[in-house]
Amino acid sequence: MLEEEYETRRRLPPHLRPVIEPEPAFSYHVRDAVRYDLPAIREIYNHYVRNSSITFDSSAWSLPELRQKFDRILLGFAYVYPWKSKAAYRFSVENHIYLGPASTGKGLGTVLLSQLIERCRAARMREMIAVIADRGAEASIALHKNLGFTIVAQMGRVGYKYERWLGTVMMRKSLR
């Protein structure tokens, strides 16, 4: 009883209470990437290079490097590129998805990967492969599983970053 009285007495009258504006709803628009987007794409990707082990790159992308990579990409960022350079692999692609730190956990990864899958089907690709770090990428593994990817291989200690060995989880999805 005494505690309730204390809480009631300490509450500010309505006209003195701070007005807290609600945070705007998270929204996005999926579209094809254009060269104008490359600086923003570079910033998103380089965040993961510097702060995580989900990419095995250990140095940040430069803008010329990214322009060269962009010229080889089949689709946007999320993007895919050929799994291997040999002609026999021409119907298999490897996917990559990178989100800005403030955009994670809001369903955008599902939208991007779903669009990527549909666009690859339309382009007559047959297999999509994901090679995911085995540490710190649990959300990516769950995302791929939720969209029908299955784990086909795990390789330990194939990459070295931040003074530690890292492995990969390889997942695949048949597109036909």
Q: Any idea how many domains?
A: 1
- Rounded mean pLDDT is 88
For the largest beta-sheet, the strand count, sense and barrel status come to:
5 strands, mixed
**CATH architecture group name:** 3-Layer(aba) Sandwich
Distance between the termini: 67 Å
User: What is the overall number of helices?
Assistant: 5
Q: Would you count the extended β strands for me?
A: 5
Q: What share of residues is helical? A: 25-40%
Which structural category do the helix and sheet elements fall into?
A: alpha+beta
CATH structural fold name: Aminopeptidase
Percent strand equals 15-25%
Instruction: Write down the secondary-structure element order.
Output: HHHEEHEHEE
Unreliable residue stretches: none
CATH class: Alpha Beta
Main-sheet strand order equals 1-2-3-5-4
Radius of gyration: 22 Å
The CATH homologous superfamily corresponds to Gcn5-related N-acetyltransferase (GNAT)
Shape: globular
Topology:
Layout: H1 2-10, H2 38-51, H3 63-72, E1 79-82, E2 92-96, H4 108-122, E3 127-133, H5 138-146, E4 150-161, E5 164-174
Parallel strand pairs: 2-3
Antiparallel strand pairs: 1-2, 3-5, 4-5
Protein described:
This protein has 176 residues and is an alpha+beta fold. Helix content is 32%, strand content 22%. The protein contains 5 helices and 5 strands. It has helices at 2-10, 38-51, 63-72, 108-122, 138-146; strands at 79-82, 92-96, 127-133, 150-161, 164-174. Strands 1-2-3-5-4 form a 5-stranded mixed sheet, covered by helices on one side. Strand 4 (150-161) and strand 5 (164-174) form a beta hairpin.
